[in-house]
């Protein structure tokens, strides 16, 4: 489940009905426009869900340090294509990563950074496949080893902490996720900066966790910061910025500030018509959002 959809679902109280994403009031099923979670794609938020996890790990693995033997090179090649091949098929990704984990453990050892990376990606795939309990157990194991081998401030370690928190969210434990994300976000800001992909994903995940825990006031504040950073990094008209503004509007709406939500929805609709066209699925969803908010205001 992408974090954009997760954030929206946390307010709407919906369950993701299919791998394609949520439905809408117009009978059209689609993911939000400009989905940022494509490995190597544009946007500050990385790749699917935990990915800063994949994007961070892939980026470092594709430029290995030191000499590599044939087995290690094959592992690097497999990792390089994994995101593209398995992005929409978590079950296939699990098979791939389990195979690569056996190869990497045998060739490089359990503590090698590449092996830790594959374990992390396998844990992420468990989350995506709907098995958060298995993902949590593996993420916790990887985090213990990453702290020991790489250190607490290593970017890979920070990504694993975010991945663990996201698995906890999927498992229905937002309170524990909040505890992890509070510290992870502070460390990401300190180590990586405000606009890094891990920082933005940690902040969005924390906002989602707060919404699921019922703290919509904090969720709104956190997503305001996410929108600001996304607009600053990509521009006001980028599809990711449009999606962030729409999610912020839904958080504001759920918090009871209908007047402000309507103003945000109106801007989202105007921008959607201008950037995507009047018949785009996301424009239709934006129109429904605005109509629903206006209807609630008149009650």
Overall average residue pLDDT: 79
Distance between the termini: 34 Å
- Protein structure class: mainly alpha
Shape: elongated
Largest sheet entry: none
Query: Which strand-content bin applies to the residues?
Result: under 5%
> Percentage of helical residues?
over 70%
Radius of gyration: 19 Å
Instruction: Write the element-wise H/E pattern from the N-terminal end onward.
Output: HHHHHHHHHHHHH
Would you identify the regions where 5 or more consecutive residues have pLDDT less than 50?
A: 15-53, 58-71
Q: What is the overall number of helices?
A: 13
Task: Please give the number of β-strands.
Answer: 0
Written overview of the protein:
- The protein has 299 residues and is mainly alpha-helical.
- 71% of the residues lie in helices and 0% in strands.
- The protein starts with a helix and ends with a helix.
- The model is unreliable at 15-53 and 58-71 (pLDDT under 50).
Question: How would you sum up this structure in a few lines?
Answer:
By secondary structure, the chain is an all-alpha fold. The protein contains 13 helices and no strands. The protein has helices at residues 3-12, 53-61, 70-86, 90-108, 113-128, 132-149, 155-170, 174-192, 197-212, 216-234, 239-254, 258-276, 281-298.
Describe the secondary-structure layout.
Elements: H1 3-12, H2 53-61, H3 70-86, H4 90-108, H5 113-128, H6 132-149, H7 155-170, H8 174-192, H9 197-212, H10 216-234, H11 239-254, H12 258-276, H13 281-298
Helix pairs in contact: 1-9, 1-11, 2-5, 3-4, 4-5, 5-6, 5-7, 6-7, 7-8, 7-9, 8-9, 9-10, 10-11, 11-12, 12-13
